[in-house]
Amino acid sequence: PYYVDVNQNLFLQASLHSSDENLMLFVDTCVASPNSSDFKTLVYELAKSGCASDPSFALFPSPRGDVARFGFNSFSFMNQFPSVFLRCELLVCRQHDYSSRCHQGCGRRFKRSADS
């Protein structure tokens, strides 16, 4: 566990441990829940498809491709739960594959109107 006050900035880092130096990490989705075993019932979305869902969520520059850095402001679930659990999904891609999801960044898809 990591103990913080509400509204404190949290900075996280994920590292890929591989002998292949041509791999990179990309933070795709992060959600928080007051229940460590249930990330569906009561969740707060921090990031989805590589896009920030929370205004405080940010990606930070990394010294290497196999390290992903990100952060957000800590919060509580309506002051009713003593803990918040985080689940993040990261993608592993080839470093120089510029068509990969890792290089595409935020994956928001916009709807287009259909012609009659």
UniProtKB/TrEMBL annotation:
All residue ranges annotated as the ZP domain in the record: 1-109
PROSITE patterns found in the cross-reference section: ZP_2 (PS51034)
Key words, A-Z: Disulfide bond, Signal
Keyword Membrane: no
Pfam families reported for this sequence: Zona_pellucida
Name of the protein in its database record: DMBT1 protein
Organism annotation: Cettia cetti
